[in-house]
Design brief:
This protein has seven helices and 26 strands. It is of the alpha/beta class. The protein folds into four domains: about 5-20 and about 185-325, Molybdenum Cofactor Biosythetic Enzyme, Chain A; about 25-45 and about 155-180, Molybdopterin biosynthesis moea protein, domain 2 (Alpha-Beta Complex), CATH 3.90.105.10; about 50-145, Molybdopterin biosynthesis moeA protein, domain 3, CATH 2.170.190; about 335-410, MoeA, C-terminal, domain IV (Beta-clip), CATH 2.40.340. The strands form seven sheets. A six-stranded mixed sheet has the order 7-4-6-5-9-8, with no helix packed on it. A six-stranded mixed sheet has the order 16-13-17-21-20-18, sandwiched between helices. The two termini are about 40 Å apart.
Length: about 425
Amino acid sequence: MPEMISLEEARALVLAHVEPLPVETVPVLDAVGRVAAVPLASDIDIAPFAHSAMDGFAVRAGDLAAASAETPIELDVIAEIAAGDTYEGPLASGQCVRIMTGAPLPDAADAVVKYEIVDVVSGDGMPGSRVAFTAPTKVRSNVREAGEEAKAGEVIVKAGEVVGTAGVGFLAGCGVVEMPTYLRPRVAIISIGSELVDPDRVPAGGKIRNSNSYALAACAKAAGALPVILPIVEDTHEALAAAVLHAVANFDFVVTSGGASNGDFDFIKPVVEELGALLMTTVNMRPGKAQTFGIVNDIPVFGLPGNPAAAYVGFEMIIRPALRKMQGYTHFERPHVRARLTRDVKKKDPRRIFMRSTLYRNAEGAYEVEPAQNQSSGLFGVIQRSNCMAIMPEGLEGCTAGSLVECVLLDVPEEIVL
């Protein structure tokens, strides 16, 4: 039987046994939050032409070199260019063109002066009017150049890059309407326990509702995977073995909860050992010491404890990184910050403890962390009201109020650098 290992060893072990899944091609709108499997290039210059950055007047900057409030320079407005139109005529000295945001800059113009700082001398500022400029302007001022953001053929999203919401617009503007990305892992979620009933039933006679499956499926979904909740499995070796064999035949990753300890009705460890290779059984952490991991028919099978907090912490710290690796992500750990404890914390267990907690900034802007009073591993509500986990290191030494402790942020993506 494998010995108890550290959390870092457990995460490394599981990551070593998963690889990115095959590639699929999805519409660009479905690429948000996913990893590009290949480099993506623009088919044209972006922007394809030099254009105005604002509503104003396209001018020849040299015409305004001597302009001042005391001696304004007056120009004739000879044309107007709306977005989507062009002006290909000449622009002689003493002339300007009224231009809208996004409209192509006339070839003879080399700057744009915004409308609000130009005085109308006669007319209404439209073609046929005369306008006055009271200051010089720089060459290429208020002009967005052709190819400023990307050149034709230039890679705009690298392989391995996560596409954000703005990235979807960037890709669309560069003519990329589909993106190759890694398949999302199909995850089987199995709750084990003869005491469990489905949530739509009112439990009676020693029964409880199956909440773990829903929480773990939500965790898998939040990690980008495609979870499927399978039927509850009774506490027998035969039933669990059949359920695991069915799951590994139809899914990319299997997660069970319950039956992970060493009691008379805890069967996930012997089932994995019987059907495949049992690689891990316990991790030096609390909650969630009992963490079973193995490979059955080339499919990872992970057995979480039945207590909600223990299952949740195990999923967040070990399974979530594995599901992300299968989708091509390269960042596997949630961001950490250091914060001051708001109260004393005693420690009677030598394991590393993850305390469900609330992180906030005090009046001075410094991070403070308040561990929940009730740290029972059987509670979901405490996790719902927490935004981090405060970490108590291995050993029996507690921490006093004001001590700095590491906190794992539960609501911040792994890619964020703090």
